[in-house]
Inverse folding.
């Protein structure tokens, strides 16, 4: 297949691009910065989805059969400080992409959605649970999912929306390295490595067993596999799935597992809760398992081990 991957040089996108190339798909990466640019057959276009002229040129030049849409702003905390940038990037620029697809008769899109679309609850989240984001980032992901429903109905765009839980881990020399880094596992590993004095724990009085927030961490190799499957399984009927392991781990537990994996003591400092942080976000992944037979293969130890290998070598 000839596939356009927006945000294909990012943390998750680059892993998916690698897998697409391995399966001999043709890939064009559209990204605003080279990031994990894969020096191989993937053509790389530097650009922003706000640039409609560039989008038009790219769609005219390539006869895409599908789009995988990763590009967007990702930090939930940041979205509570700068909502308009999130709306522009995740919703308005997304419409530019959808319009280019309609114009050039590209009918398939796989979308990087998020667990942040749900109203958090103290148990595993099902796809049919209440959609009421706790932060504006989640709101923009939900808005784009709604847009996909309308473009499906109005223009026949086929879509799969994948609601990722916490993407983590590393593979093939590519791992999590945002600038600035805000994610828990890479920050813990920086502390273990001595690049930071300590890790701040954002809130220790949440209504969870040890008082710290619980998340469902999913290995990027598992995520990559789901995207390849989605390209095969996409149909006229919209499909939305949770992509998680179904197991939750608290911030405290992650620190303990990281100490075990790295063999190093990690200093911890209690800090105030981060605005918009839900206490508990864990997937019920049974819908995707039933529909596609997909199940996460990697556990939290594999994730931290792979992230540590990447961290030591980068
Ligand atoms: N945390 C800390 N200290 C830090 C960084 C994070 O205690 O220095 C805590 C957070 O408060 C949170 C947990 O660790 O409870 C995980 O935080 P991350 O920043 O790693 O990830 P988030 O859960 O905030 O968000 C991530 C992605 C989102 C996605 C979401 C889905 O960034 O894009 O997972 O669960 F929507």
């Amino acid at each position: 297949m000839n596939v356009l991957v927006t945000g294909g040089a990012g943390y998750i996108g680059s892993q998916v691009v690698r897998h697409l190339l391995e399966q001999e798909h043709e890939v064009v990466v559209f990204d605003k910065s080279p990031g994990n640019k894969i020096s191989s057959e993937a053509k790389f276009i530097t650009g922003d989805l706000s640039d409609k002229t560039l989008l038009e040129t790219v769609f005219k030049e390539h006869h895409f059969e599908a789009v995988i849409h990763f590009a967007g702003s990702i930090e939930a905390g940041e979205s509570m400080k700068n909502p308009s940038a999130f709306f522009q990037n995740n919703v308005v620029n997304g419409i530019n992409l959808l319009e280019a697809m309609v114009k050039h008769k590209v009918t398939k899109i796989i979308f990087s959605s998020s667990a942040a679309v749900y109203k958090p609850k103290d148990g595993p989240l099902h796809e049919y649970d209440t959609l009421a984001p706790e932060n504006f980032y989640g709101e923009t992901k939900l808005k784009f999912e709604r847009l996909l429903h309308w473009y499906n109905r109005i223009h026949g765009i086929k879509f799969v929306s994948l609601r990722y839980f916490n993407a983590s881990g590393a593979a093939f020399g590519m791992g999590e390295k945002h600038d600035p880094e805000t994610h828990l596992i890479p920050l813990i590993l920086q502390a273990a490595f001595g690049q930071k004095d300590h890790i701040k724990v954002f809130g220790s009085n949440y209504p969870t067993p040890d008082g710290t927030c619980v998340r469902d961490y999913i290995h990027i190799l598992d995520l990559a596999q789901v995207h390849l499957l989605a390209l095969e399984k996409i149909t006229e009927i919209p499909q939305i799935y949770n992509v998680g392991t179904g197991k939750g781990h608290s911030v405290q537990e992650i620190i303990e597992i990281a100490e075990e994996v790295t063999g190093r003591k990690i200093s911890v400092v209690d800090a105030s809760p981060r605005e918009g942080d839900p206490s508990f976000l864990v997937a019920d992944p049974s819908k995707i398992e039933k529909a596609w037979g997909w199940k996460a293969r990697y556990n939290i130890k594999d994730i931290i081990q792979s992230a540590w290998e990447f961290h030591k070598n980068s």
User: Anything to note?
Assistant: The radius of gyration is 19 Å. The domain at 168-215+246-313 is CATH 3.90.25.10 (UDP-galactose 4-epimerase; domain 1).
